[in-house]
Amino acid sequence: MGASQEEKAGEIVARMDRLPTWAFDYIFLWIVGIGELFTFFDIFNINVSFIQTAVTLFHVPPSKAAPLLGPVVLGNLIGYVVGSLALSPLSDRIGRRNMLMITMIITALGSAFNAVSFNYATFFLARFITGIGIGADLAVVNTYIGEVAPTKYRARYVSLVFTFSTLGAFLGIWIGLLLTTPPAPFPNGLPFALGGLGIFATDGWRIMYAIGALLAIIGILLRVRLPESPRWLISKGRMIEAENIVSAMERKVSKKGLQLPPIPSIVRPVMKASNMPYTEVLRNKLYLKRLAFLLPMWFLAYTTVYSIASGLTSLLTAVGYSTPEAGIISAIGVFGFVLVGPIAFLYGDKIERKFWLGIGAALTVVGGLIVGITSNILIDLLGSIILFFGFNIWVPIAYTWTAESFPTRARTSGFALNDGIGHLGGGIGVVAVTALAVVLPAIQLFGVIVTFMVIAAIIALVLGHYTLNKRLDEISP
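That's the MFS transporter sequence above. Prediction below.
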């Protein structure tokens, strides 16, 4: 690419960087968000429903479900790693939009397979397939939003999409409570739960996964409308297409009655890229250094996240709670998760990225200790809300931070290395934690769970770099 074309590329990027607000139709945020609603529905729907799966499909009592959950979650997260590492680089080669279609198709097939699984092996395989789709999808979604969002509000719009994720988690847990647990007086359960009636008594969990497949199909149909990322088009030398999209973005901002700021200084993007996007990360000292602390941060933090997100109901059942009680504690706790989206949307761009890890860790410790110490159901409900808020509040900000930390030519690949391999921490951690659940008292069990999050926060606070309000090509040339 000649100097004049590189100058043109830098000018187009600079025009994007000056945009003061979201410059696409807001329907595109909804389209991406609906897809994320499904992915988190699938992550969280196993939390409550797995007890019924274990009883009706694997023929074990509720108190013995936790050890069976660990390998299933690990299988799902191994699939996540495979999908993230194998498919995400394709996004750096074939485009963000095309890859978003492929990932959702894989996820839909996995969830449909889950609905018809007939033994432990097929259930495990279905979760593995679903993980492949989810792993790649989350990497591409967060890369895409980060590349098209305004410089000053990248965390805001990633957090807005994450709000749909919290709704997916809410639906996953509450529909599981409704369809797979027997009725019980509140707060010890859900009085109108259907899990003791007819088909719901044995196959409520299958209906859960069928709902997930339906949501994924809706996501596929909607994503056809998404525009491509101009930054990715520029990285491939497709200047005319990129400029057309940026011009449309500028017109959209002007129609909102906002004045376009002056074009900032031009930073020429690096146009020459390797055919293997991972080499752009692994052979560059700057990006390798970032990988060296972001990866262990994600690995340790995900141990805490998935122990609670996928296993809280099973863990509580293992330490003596009844199935309805454990389910209601998880279901009420997810309200804390729902609060994450609005709080991160409002304040995510006001505090430097790495400090959110410290905030999340502190709240996770408080919530975990409350749940671990007390056996009073009402206090446990409050502790669960704090716990869910704490172990999730940092996630959309860290998504933003990780995507910012790698260049456009390998941004999805860089995100995948951290988020993808990091999920192995979640899988291995869940296997260990669910095994410990049958031998440790509650306080020690939750002490172990929150410790991983604390260590992850220390790593981020000590070693993390600053990206707030900086342009992408300045952070990651």
